Amino acid sequence: MAGEGSKFDVVIIGAGHNGLAAAATLGKKGKRVLVLERSGAIGGLATSYEISDGLPISRHAHLAYNLNPTVIAELGLSGKLSMRPLATIMLSDDARHVEIDGETIRFADGSAHPDGEAYKEIRNRIKKFAGLLAPLALRSPPDPGGGLSLAGAGEAMPLAALALKLRLMGKKDMRDFLRIVLSNIYDLALDDLPDGPLAGNLAADAVWGAWAGPRSPGTVFSLMYRYGCGGAPLLPQGGMGAVAGAFAAAARQAGAEIRTGVSARRVLIANDAVTGIETDKGEKISAGAVMSSAGAVQSMMLAGAEHFDVEAVRRIRNVRSKGMTAKVNILLKRAPDIPGLSKEQMAGRLIAAPTAIYVERAFTQAKYGEMPAAPIIEAVIPTLADGGDRHAVSAIVHYIPRNLKGGWDDAARARLTGLTIDTLARYWPDLRDNVERVDAFSPADIENETAAPGGHWHHAELSIDQLLTVRPVNQLSRYAFAVRGFYLCGASAHPGGDVSGAAGRNSALQLLNDGVLA
Amino acid sequence: MDKQDSYDAIVVGAGHNGLTAACYLAKAGLKTLIVEKNEQIGGAAVSTEMYKGWIYSNCSYVCSLLRQEIIRDLELPKFGLQVVPYRGRVTFSDKGEYLASYDDAHVKRREVGRISPIDVDAYDRYYQLVMRQCRFIRPFLLRRAPDPTSMKPRDVGELMFLIKRIYDIGPRDVGEMIRFWTMSIGDFLDEHFEHELVKASMAGSGIIGTGLGVYSPGTAYVLLHHYMGDVDGSMGAWGFARGAMGAVTKALGAAFESAGGVIKTGSGLSEFIIENEKVRGVALENGDEYRAPIVASNLDVKRTILKHIGREKLPPEYVRAVERFKIRGSSGKLNLALDKMPSFPLLPENGDYFTGDFSCNTSLETLERAYDDWKEGRWSAKPYFDMLIPSKIDPTLAPPGSHMMSLFIQYAPYDLNVNGVRSADNWNDETRKAFADAVFDRIEVCCPDIRQRVLHAEVRSPADIEREVGLTEGNIFQGELTFDQLLFNRPIPGYAQYSTPIDGLYIVGSSTHPGGGVMAAPGANAAREILRRNGKGDLMPALAEEEI
């Protein structure tokens, strides 16, 4: 209940894109919202910085492929964003790189790829099933406690709709869906493809951000998740910071106030209900509800574990978020030159994952906290499309464990840098003496900078046992987080991470629906 | 055609599922024939003399999953089956620690507390959760898997039964169930326990027989597969068949013959005789032909379809689906004739555990690394084993004073990688010996004198098991137990109710629902389905609550 004279209805912890999506959604419904961000800049995992004067580059996340169209429409983001679709280039040791551009699959030299049709058949089948699941991302997870009441029947509606749509696809597709949905991408790809760049593409796209290898069951689902909004990779003009900027603009337009450099010390609770928040500077701000885009554990600790059922505490403590992804930005001395690729192709999404087995082997080492001999990399050179003469590479380096044996320090970071350049230089030998400067962000750095648990880009592993009704944990999946008026609004809540905005938007709608602010 | 060679039904393969199906068919009055390629019946459940005076179980080695309903229906004790429960288990670590397991809950708590006080209460929580999942799943073992795409009342009814069971367990436990069924055993144990040896002691059951590691999602379910059995109603208990595992199939064979069935051994199947998309009988390798309108194959689905039927007789999509079905060899066997009881210097003398199983795995990481070796086509440098000394309970298995030891070993690949070439042909005396040496090195952690005790050793790689028993890749479950191959997906979506595209041809082995282990449920379920389709459904005993 909002205290009398309170200036805000809702205080939101964290100005990541989900916190901002929640703020904008609430603001548009007339709620007075304050967003607190502990760092000096908004955006969380979606920020940009200048790697060189006038040269912005994404600090962590760099491509949008899962930005939810409903969120874009509801918050009016399209006018605030400029994004360019990218073709994908699968790098190959023999310089016969493979280009994947929508329905066109070919070698980079333009010749036809013999496995193009088989690849498309698999990918498009997964995309079709992804489209089927997509509506679930825009609802709170079904409440199994709804029972046989009218409300319970309402809860079951999205699942019933999914079942109906499955049936309408026909027996063949329905059977196929039920067979593959919990299986692993490695077998699915290699049942119909030889192991090579196209199998490598499916394997890599199924595991970015994940503590899982292509042989791990559940990776077909994670690929469906990635394809939830079509999966086309989009490069935002000005880096990912521009995307967060669009969310922030939408939030401000809706009347929300955003304060940076202020963090929450604790959530204030009286009589088992939220009354507001105390900042790190000791300021008490009263509000009828507090939403947290931090991870599940940090959110619980902000409220105080004593407010949580002992089983809930145990479950929250066991949420898995073992980060596996690093970011390496490389400022180049001169324009890039990758053998076998045209300038247009070099401006695409470059992936180092030549085979599915290569991807699995990288995971095999990383799961023990070791740096893999050869990680998988997704690199873009955003400057190529801008036509300037200064260039930088933005590279996601995957299977770099947060829990590195020996820990993360400058030496480990230097190894990460070396490994990244060595891996890219297999396809791009000239890179070695084209490096002007490198900024490497280990998963530990990412955790420190953004508070993402374990530096994990989904905040909580996107595995079947941490999804939907059990995300982040069983019985706390519908955003309300144990204390009346306290809500989760970040990636650790349903439907999960990626720059999508769905978690923030859904949680705001659930908060309004729960009548807490009335 | 000689009239004598005509039957109502023919079962190909006298494994426990083939025998079970045959028993039910014969008891329903069908003139039934079983053909078996080996000289003896039993498939992977056979007792033979390995070394003068030492009797052993050739593949499967312990008994728990065999459904009580089937034991009673077929009166197997009358035909000589006696299952003797065994007690205890010990897990050793490389660090010289051990953790024993006891049936008595108080003693069990004290033992866990000896090495990890914090895990004592966690064990109660863990066991309660696992047992609840067992109780949930058990009624489904003897039911047919519903076809979710079907609108037939039987399928809709089964689906409703499933939904009702889920609804009945309540919202909190639905969430726990979703998690348990999709998690890895490693994550599940990490959530509950602190001490590595406590976790390692329980993880083995999550990987036995599979091509998965302890951190592969879905392995918590596999654990269930080893907990959901019982010995005479004692859920989760395991036992020895007196006279080794051949006693199970001998009893089934005797029950079958007393119901008027005929068994012909010594010649394998050449092909199924198929005319106009209908099965007409079988042709054997020795040239014999037998005719019947119903043929039930106990061979796994890949062998049945890909090896014994010309693919031009089958829909291409079905053949493709069978090719895609995953049957992966991941385990081997080591059977040892010992001159006397080996020593276990780490253990107090005369414990219950000497009748139970032993393993040696220090941590979940040891087990996961064992899996990583297998992925690359090598046997595990530190293999997991499940070791038993059945002669401690059943003195008929070895001469007095000496002992029979049986080890199930994981992981061992079917297509062994030697110098970068992966092939089942790489299994030879030399590689088998090297494999056995790796296992002996691990046994020495708990039994330092093991090598001195061995009078005779028999090592079997997955390729050997395939050759001998006929299981593809030597896989003990006739197919991986992953969700894409369970329930209505097993073995092939749309053909999960024991039928095939060939009219009259059925698959009755562990490739079908509910899967492997000496459970006999696939055989019994298949017999029910066969009888029902032939208008004799009322002759099948009610295995489970049929009515919904």
What does this protein structure show overall?
The complex is a heterodimer of chains A (518) and B (548). Chain A is an alpha/beta fold and 518 residues long. Chain A folds into two domains: 10-82 and 239-320 and 459-514, FAD/NAD(P)-binding domain (3-Layer(bba) Sandwich); 87-232 and 324-401 and 405-441, Alpha-Beta Complex (Polyamine Oxidase, Chain A, domain 2), CATH 3.90.660. Helix content of chain A is 35%, strand content 18%. In chain A, helix 1 (17-28) links the parallel strand 1 (10-13) and strand 2. Chain B is α+β, with helices and mostly antiparallel strands. Chain B has a domain at 3-83 and 242-326 and 491-539: FAD/NAD(P)-binding domain (3-Layer(bba) Sandwich), CATH 3.50.50.60. Chain B has helices spanning 16-27, 68-73, 105-115, 119-141, 153-168, 171-182, 185-192, 196-203, 219-227, 246-258, 301-308, 316-324, 364-375, 429-446, 450-453, 462-469, 521-533; strands at residues 9-12, 32-36, 47-51, 54-57, 83-85, 89-92, 98-101, 230-231, 234-235, 239-241, 262-265, 269-275, 278-284, 289-291, 294-297, 331-338, 357-360, 384-388, 403-410, 416-418, 421-423, 454-460, 505-507. A seven-stranded mixed beta sheet of chain B has the order 7-6-17-18-19-16-22, sandwiched between helices. Chain B has a five-stranded parallel beta sheet with strand order 11-2-1-15-23, with helices on one face. In chain B, strands 12-13-14 form a three-stranded antiparallel beta sheet, with no helix packed on it. In chain B, helix 3 (105-115) crosses helix 4. The relative contact order of chain B is 0.19. The chains are: A alpha/beta (518), B alpha+beta (548). The A-B interface holds A 143-145, 147, 167, 171, 174-176, 178-180, 182-183, 187, 191, 212, 215-218, 318, 320, 360, 364, 367-368, 463-465, 469-470, 474-475, 477 and B 148-149, 171-172, 174-176, 178-180, 182-183, 187, 190-191, 212, 215-218, 324, 326, 365, 368-369, 372, 375, 482-484, 488-489, 493-494.
